[in-house]
Each structure stands twice: as structure tokens, then as C-alpha cells.
């Protein structure tokens, strides 16, 4: 799937009254630097009517960075969560 296909889906969804969060909010949100920002973008994606299509396209294109289809991509693969900047913890912490 090409990015232009997502634009077409946006137009179709808009005529039905659905909203696509990445088209309604600031694009920078989907490329957030903080873990909280990434989780907020992922939460917005979960409300999207084209979530599965967006994710499939991002996987096909091996998107290098950002939140696509409710998942965080880094270097072309999905990662569970964004780690904060700085040194990793010496011991695991209960989430």
C-alpha cells in the first residue's frame, strides 16, 4: 500500500463521518520524542477506522520511524515501547 492510498481512505472515511486521527492532529505527534508522546499517538491510532490498512502498509514499506497503525516503528520494525533517553536502568522495575 502506498501513502497515497491512505489519503484516498481519508477522503472516503471523511464522507462517512469517520475521522482519521493522523489527518486531524499535528503530524509531529506520530514522531514524538518521549515515551508518553508515543503512547498518546498509539492511543489515538486505536480509534482509527483504517488502523489495519495503515499498519499493513507501514510493514510493507518498512517505515523507518514513527507510529503507524497503532505500532511504533524503529529502523523498519515494530518495537513494544519507546525507551526514554539516557542510561538504561540497572535493574528491572515493575510496570
Percent helix, as a range, is: 40-55%
- Main pleated sheet: 3 strands, antiparallel
Number of strands: 3
The coarse silhouette is elongated
The percent range for strand residues is 5-15%
Rg, Å, rounded: 15 Å
- Please report the distance between the alpha carbons of the first and last residues: 36 Å
| Count of runs of 4 or more consecutive helical residues | 4
- SSE string: HHHHEEE
Mean pLDDT: 81
Task: State the low-pLDDT regions, or none.
Answer: none
Strand order of the largest sheet: 1-2-3
What does it look like?
With 95 residues, the protein is an alpha+beta fold. It has a domain at 18-79. It has helices at residues 3-16, 21-24, 35-45, 51-61; strands at 65-68, 71-74, 77-79. It has a 3-stranded antiparallel β-sheet. The longest helix is centred in the first third of the chain and has 14 residues, at 3-16. The model has no long low-confidence stretch (mean pLDDT 81). One of its GO terms (molecular function) is protein-disulfide reductase [NAD(P)H] activity. Residues 21-78 form the 4Fe-4S Wbl-type domain.
Tell me the layout of helices and strands.
Elements: H1 3-16, H2 21-24, H3 35-45, H4 51-61, E1 65-68, E2 71-74, E3 77-79
Antiparallel strand pairs: 1-2, 2-3
Keywords, separated by commas or semicolons:
95 residues, alpha+beta, 3-stranded antiparallel beta sheet, 42% helix
Write a brief structural summary:
The protein is of the alpha+beta class and 95 residues long. The chain is built from 4 helices and 3 strands; from the N terminus they run ααααβββ. A hairpin with a 2-residue loop joins strand 2 and strand 3.
